[in-house]
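Record type: monomer structure entry
Structure origin: computed from sequence
Chain ID: A
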Amino acid sequence: MSIKKGSKVKILTGKDKSKEGEIIEIDRSNNRAKVKGLNMIKKHIKTTKEKKGGIFEKENFLNLSNLALISENKKNEKKVVTKK
């Protein structure tokens, strides 16, 4: 079973350790994924004619090795293995 967009995962390391979320974006070339609502960073946006600027929070990428895939019955948690 491989990881894909919409999969439920658990964070294994870092500031959001043991939190659960859903994958919203995957970067397979760099072995990274974004999890909804986790690993938030602040992004400074410059004001343009179309958009107002300011400081916004958004999700940042996590390494796939720091994620565990959660199955439907929540008894089986498997660490994501990346192939090189």
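Annotation 1: The domain at 8-70 is CATH 2.30.30.30 (SH3 type barrels.).
Annotation 2: The chain has a mean pLDDT of 87.
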